[in-house]
Write a structure and sequence with these properties.
Blueprint lengths: L6 E4 L1 H14 L12 E7 L4 E6 L3 E5 L4 E14 L2 E12 L2 E4 L2 E4 L6 E5 L5 E5 L6 H12 L1
């Protein structure tokens, strides 16, 4: 994987920066993968393959929708414009079950909705705003004022 990587880095701060940059580049909300203690990030631009390695699993509650998600210590996927597919390492809690998430997409043109699918094809829709990073929103507003 590393040998074919167009982008590769180690260390939490740089990996966070690269991961958010990639999500923004492909038109997805930057708060979508709130991984903590990232150790490694890699991206193969030719295929769209991306991986994120963390020291441990990350549990995160998306407060705006009241949903809990769990990110494994290794998350892999293929990214393309407005979509993540063949994702591994991500689960969402639905009632009493943890459901694997394999695909995420947003509409083009934008409708303000984001779609999540399981490997069984079962899906759920939420507002994109629930997955936007509040820090990024502040930065964008400050840049617009300048």
């Amino acid at each position: 994987m590393r040998a074919n990587a167009t982008e590769f880095c180690k260390g939490n701060a740089l990996c966070q920066y690269k991961a958010k940059g990639l999500l923004k580049e492909v038109g997805l909300p930057t708060g979508l993968l709130p991984l903590q203690d990232m150790e490694e990030f890699g991206y193969v631009k030719d295929t769209g393959f991306v991986w994120f390695k963390s020291k441990k699993n990350t549990d995160h509650k998306f407060e705006k929708i009241g949903k809990l998600a769990q990110y494994g210590s290794e998350v892999t996927a293929y990214v393309e414009q407005k979509k993540i597919k063949k994702m591994t390492g991500v689960k969402a809690k639905e009632l009493f079950l943890w459901v694997t998430i394999s695909e995420i997409s947003v509409d083009d043109p934008p409708t303000g909705k984001i779609y999540f699918k399981s490997p069984l094809g079962i899906g759920k829709t939420f507002p994109v705003s629930a997955f936007e990073n509040p820090e990024d929103e502040k930065e964008e507003k400050e840049e617009q004022r300048k």
